[in-house]
Design a protein that fits this description.
The protein is an alpha+beta fold and 282 residues long. The protein is 27% helix and 33% strand. It folds into 2 domains: 93 residues, no CATH class; 181 residues, Trna Endonuclease, Chain: A, domain 1 (3-Layer(aba) Sandwich), CATH 3.40.1350. The protein contains 8 helices and 15 strands. The strands form 4 sheets. The protein has a 7-stranded mixed beta sheet. It has a 4-stranded antiparallel beta sheet with strand order 2-1-5-6, covered by helices on one side. Strands 3-4 form a two-stranded antiparallel sheet.
């Protein structure tokens, strides 16, 4: 089983010529957030771990473990613009974070607005694989090999990490099941954005035979992305789009539930959040 850190603070650890790692580690910056990395140690919350992507598996394939990694170039939002069927030229695009709906909250809402009024919107959920164990020893071993001074006890630690495929997949499907009827009732779209490896697992382990290539009329859209080398970086690339409806998500889990929510309630919350800071600039 191959393991190791592939991206640390969004930098490809396999091609790091000229990288000043002491400065990178000190700054703890996340380019996808335009701020500090939010993936921190529980025991030392002032220290950002910074691990975006890791190796895992016999084929040495990358596994994205931080949802913020999916925000590269804001591509996941531009790939949802076609779902805003009520958008018109002249409207502005906004990205609003953490909108509460029945069953929980939605990570982002992509909004088409004019004069501060919402014309259309789609929900966007980001999901990557949760890990088990600890990534810290792998991180520290890489930094030590790159010339940084780290605790020897950290590099000698035998604690490893694993991928919690089953729990991650089941959890996100249950969450989607709780939320999708809201969007279906509002005649809006909810988009799950994930990595191709996680979607492949979901297809194998859950009932996905009825989930078809993406259709605009389906409220539940799933966009999967792969990581591909481009120069010295790993670059996100849209791999697949599929879709279904509320009953389709129920069939994936063998469950049924109903949720209703007033459109005006959702729109009012989004309009209260529109600002220059939420404006999506392309």
């Amino acid at each position: 089983m191959k393991t190791g850190v592939l991206e640390l603070f969004a930098i490809n650890t396999g091609k790091t010529a000229g990288i000043n790692w002491p400065s990178v580690v000190a700054e703890q910056a996340c380019p996808f957030l335009n701020g500090k990395c939010v993936k921190v140690r529980k025991s030392q919350p002032h220290i950002a771990i910074g691990t975006c992507t890791v190796k895992y598996g016999r084929e040495d394939q990358p596994v994205v473990i931080c949802p913020k990694r999916l925000l590269e170039r804001k591509q996941v939002f531009t790939d949802c613009i076609h779902l805003l069927t009520l958008h018109e030229p002249g409207n502005e695009f906004h990205v609003v974070q953490e909108v509460t709906v029945p069953g929980g909250s939605v990570d982002y809402f992509l909004v088409s607005a004019r004069n501060g009024k919402v014309r259309d919107f789609s929900g966007v959920e980001l999901q990557t694989v949760d890990t088990t164990g600890t990534l810290w020893p792998e991180r520290q071993r890489f930094l030590a090999a790159s010339g940084l001074s780290v605790k020897k006890s950290d590099t000698r630690a035998t604690d490893g990490y694993g991928m919690n495929w089953k729990m991650t997949a089941k959890t996100i499907l249950v969450q989607l099941h709780h939320k999708i009827r809201t969007f279906e009732g509002l005649n809006k779209h909810l988009v799950l954005v994930t990595q191709d490896r996680l979607l492949d697992y979901m297809k194998r382990e859950f009932s996905f035979a009825h989930v078809r290539p993406a259709r605009l009329g389906d409220p539940m859209q799933i966009h999967s992305y792969r990581l591909k080398p481009k120069g010295n970086e790993l670059r996100l690339e849209l791999a697949e789009r599929i879709s279904t409806d509320a009953d389709g998500i129920s069939r994936c889990l063998g469950l049924r539930a109903e949720v209703n929510m007033e459109l005006a309630q959702v729109v009012a919350y989004q309009e209260s959040k529109l600002s220059k800071d939420t404006l999506l600039t392309l």
